[in-house]
Amino acid sequence: MSDKNALIQPDRGQKAVDIHLVDKDGLEAFLKERTAPQRAAIEAQKFKADGFDHAILPDGEGWAVVAGVANASDLSSWCMAKLAEALPAGTYRRVGGKPGKAMFGWITGQYSFERYRTDPSEEGPRVLLTGEVKAIGAVTAEAEAVELVRDLVNTPAEDMGPGQLETEAEGLAKAHHAEIRLTRGDTLEREFPMVHAVGRAAGRSHAPRMIELEWGNPEHPKIAVVGKGVCFDSGGLDIKPSSGMLLMKKDMGGAAHALALARLIMAAKLPVRLHVLVPAVENAVSANAFRPGDVLKSRAGMSVEIGNTDAEGRLILADALTRAGENEPELVLDFATLTGAARVALGPDLPALFAREDTTAQALLDGGIASDDPCWRLPLHEAYREYLKSDLADINNSGSSGFAGSCTAALFLDRFVPKDVDWAHFDTFAWRPAAKPGRPKGGDALGLRAAWHMLQHRYGE
């Protein structure tokens, strides 16, 4: 994770390299204001004000930068991110305007995950100056939350198992004076039977557990944030092919989102009573692994027939959502890397959003647009509940047809959330298969900023 305090600083007239942001409509006027040597430099570098393109200009005894953006008067989070990756270490200032939202991409564009490199990069930071002093803290907090997700997801399962997730939660609780509750062993089997069943095959070294964190004034509105914490998913006895396991260190991406969102909420002192729940397991294969055809008891008392052991995330979330509902929250948000079907439908960039309340869904979609973290709503279609029928138990964990896989997974979760609770579910990928400016290949937060902006709008003072 980068040193965020060094990347965005108040502009007090420090010496800095000028950055000019120009869109195609403004290029002609920009060129007229330049000197002949500057115009020659622009022409030589074939700068056309295309997005993420830039050119270096002579500027007195030094140099300046001109960069193309889609709209110079309405900057996106990412429009300066490529500069933060490509320019030399130093201090920079946008001229003719404020960086605004682009401060976020300036920070995340300098992210790198180098935990396992024997020769990490020693290149210094690119510092951006801004007069928007009051915004620096909020932008930095969001960037740190996103990079926390990246760090957790990028870490291999051997170093990011249930125990390490517990350690992350403990550090978070200590930093913000929150209460933490850990449930393991025989108590876990009694109180969260499906979490125990899914995780028991991993043995002592990666034993399952339920991690709960509570924070805030009990008189404030109660909200719950739940994150799927499958630290590695072999598929269980319905084992995945080796190619399907390569990215399964990221199956705790929902837990990473939940912890990052909790940190944002607590750091901002949002006036809510927060309950965070992370069921942390490894879905492994051993003699005591749960089996296809087994019937599991849930915390809610419902019986669940196992149609597929590779549909394990919804099982542990079901127990967590049941526990969340017992505190009678007014809002429950959950994050999970739940289905491949969501990725087939929407690709890697768009988390599938499911919500009971239209107003909550719209607020989350609006939050995503405002923060350049878009989501796409899919339906909790009642007719698809029949796909979850079981001949033996109250419900089956795997749909009986190949249709609407993300919808049926969401409908399964819906059965474990009290009917009167406002609930929204993000089926997120938590991974970026190809780099984009400000968004390197690897673990990533998708849906986090959308949820945070919605919560700020709903509960912020």
Per-chain topology:
Layout: E1 8-10, E2 17-22, H1 27-32, H2 36-44, E3 54-59, E4 62-68, H3 81-86, E5 90-94, H4 102-108, E6 126-130, H5 133-154, H6 162-176, E7 179-184, H7 185-191, H8 193-199, E8 209-215, E9 222-227, E10 229-233, H9 242-245, H10 253-267, E11 273-283, E12 295-297, E13 303-305, H11 313-325, E14 331-336, H12 340-346, E15 352-355, H13 358-370, E16 376-377, E17 395-396, H14 405-414, E18 422-427, E19 431-432, E20 442-443, H15 448-459
Parallel strand pairs: 1-6, 2-4, 2-5, 5-6, 9-11, 9-14, 10-11, 13-17, 14-18, 15-16
Antiparallel strand pairs: 3-4, 7-8, 8-11, 12-13, 15-18, 19-20
Report on this structure.
This protein is of the alpha/beta class. It has 2 domains: 4-131, Leucine Aminopeptidase, subunit E, domain 1; 142-459, Aminopeptidase, CATH 3.40.630. The protein has 15 helices and 20 strands. The strands form 4 sheets. Strands 7, 8, 9, 10, 11, 14, 15, 16 and 18 form a 9-stranded mixed beta sheet that branches. Helix 4 packs parallel to helix 5, helix 6 runs parallel beside helix 10 (253-267) and helix 7 (185-191) crosses helix 8 (193-199). The longest helix has 22 residues, at 133-154. The model has no long low-confidence stretch (mean pLDDT 97).
